[in-house]
Amino acid sequence: VDELPFGNYVEIEGSLAAIENLVDKLGFNDVERITSGYYELFQRAKNRQGLSLAHCTFTGWQAGLKSSIPD
């Protein structure tokens, strides 16, 4: 499990057959699959939050969220 500032993700790598086998064993057949890399996920998440962060850090993410909350 990868813990990122904008969410937790399970990353499965390997051949398509190996991935499908593991997905089945884990019971993840009905779970949404995301094929984007972490950089793209970061870009989409920060845009959704209206943040202008250059780097994906927990400190920066939390500071950005606090500063974007209206008074």
Number of helices: 3
Structural class: mainly alpha
Total strand count, please?
Answer: 2
Mean pLDDT: 87
Query: How far from one another are the termini?
Result: 35 Å
What is the helix fraction of residues, given as a range? 40-55%
What strand order characterises the main sheet? 1-2
Q: Which stretches are poorly predicted, pLDDT < 50 over at least 5 residues? A: none
The arrangement of helices and strands along the chain is: EEHHH
- Give the biggest sheet: 2 strands, antiparallel
What does this structure look like?
The chain is mainly alpha-helical and 71 residues long. The protein is 48% helix and 8% strand. The protein is built from 3 helices and 2 strands. Strands 1-2 form a two-stranded antiparallel ribbon. A hairpin with a 2-residue loop joins strand 1 (2-4) and strand 2. 1% of the residues are buried. The model has no long low-confidence stretch (mean pLDDT 87).
Observed structural traits:
3 helices, two-stranded antiparallel sheet, single chain, mainly alpha, about 70 residues
How is this structure best summarized?
The protein is mainly α. The protein has 3 helices and 2 strands; from the N terminus they run ββααα. It has helices spanning 16-26, 38-49, 58-68, and strands at 2-4, 7-9.
Fold blueprint:
Layout: E1 2-4, E2 7-9, H1 16-26, H2 38-49, H3 58-68
Antiparallel strand pairs: 1-2
